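Sat 14:20. Reprocessing the chain from the morning session after the first attempt stalled halfway. Input below, unchanged.
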Amino acid sequence: MSHSENKGLILGIMAGAAGISLVLVWYHKIRKSGATIHFPAFLDLRNRFQYEFHFANLHNEQGTVMALQGRQLQILEKLNDLLLNVEELKREVKFLKKAVPKLEELVRDELQGQAGVRRTSPLHRATRKRRVETAYGATETTSSEEADSEGGYITAHTDTEGESEEERGWISLPAASARTEKETELFNLLQQVDSLHCGSDDDKKESFRLLLEKEEKYGNHQGFLWRLARAYGDMFEMTTDVEEKKKYVADGKIVAEKAIQVDTMCADSHQWFAIMCGYMSEFDSIQNKIKNGCLFKEHLDKAIELKPQEPFLYYLNGRWCYSVAQLSWIEKKVAATLFGTPPTSTVQEALQNFLKAEEMHPGYSKYNYVYLAKCYKDLGQRSNALKYCDFASSVLPVTNEDKEAQKDLEALLLTLQL
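Finished this time. Tokens:
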């Protein structure tokens, strides 16, 4: 190949390379131009997607935060209620700590007539037939006796039986010819109210009215006072209004306490003060129920000491012993916490009192038979329990108390037959 031909080939190659270079430059230019045109649109789309995604996340986070805040408020409210309850409990405990050391003083003041009036009520009742002596000779009549208990503390409603005129607290007077007009009037009034007390509900209301009319005139005589307390007990039993019951028992307790102050050796005054303390249990707190239960037992024991021939007092004592023996574990713990030495008794002690009432007055009452059966059942003596159930069944339910005793008897028979 000649030199000129080589030269032409080299120039041709250079020209071809230049052309390829131009093509490459043009291609890159076109590529860059296309990228420049389309990139902003892609960027806008991506930014929009990121914004919407961020907004959705923010919305979900706000919902979660609000839900958590609501739950936290509920928890805080519950914690606040709990703290309030704890504070209230602390105040109660603080009050009890202050009250317990003063118990002895409160009981002493109660007996001395310095304490305020408390409240109470009945659950069970008993009825019996009894003899009432009049000023002009002994005549046979019937009257109802009621004994009630709640939480172990008994209430009762009764007369005095088989005593002389003076023993019954009518009035300590010389012979009829030597009595003053006022003494004779009082003597006749007490005879009249005793007779009315043994009658119907209307008779008992009339007895209450007569005693209230003469309270200012004879309000310092113990025979008049314990009968007025008894009349308050009658009204307590007859009314069904709770507020009236509270008023009757509160006033009755004051009157019975005054009767004790006038004559501390009058058995009927102690008996009716005990009865009023028992009635109180329906309206009192548990600590006052226990306190009134202790007062009930104290004055009942005093009445038995002064009038040991009265079977009704032994019946009441049996009811108290039986109820205390049935106290639950928690009730005993509360009593121990409040008073240190809570009342204690056993079914055996209750049984001895019911047997004493039956020994002194055979066939004393339907309820006495029922409680004898209950005691024997609790002591595991099924045959004796059934025997006294038969005795109780033989007494026809005439009064409301008998009818209640009949209900208890039927429930007891079901448990004995299981």
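The beta strands are 131-134, 137-140, 146-150, 153-157.
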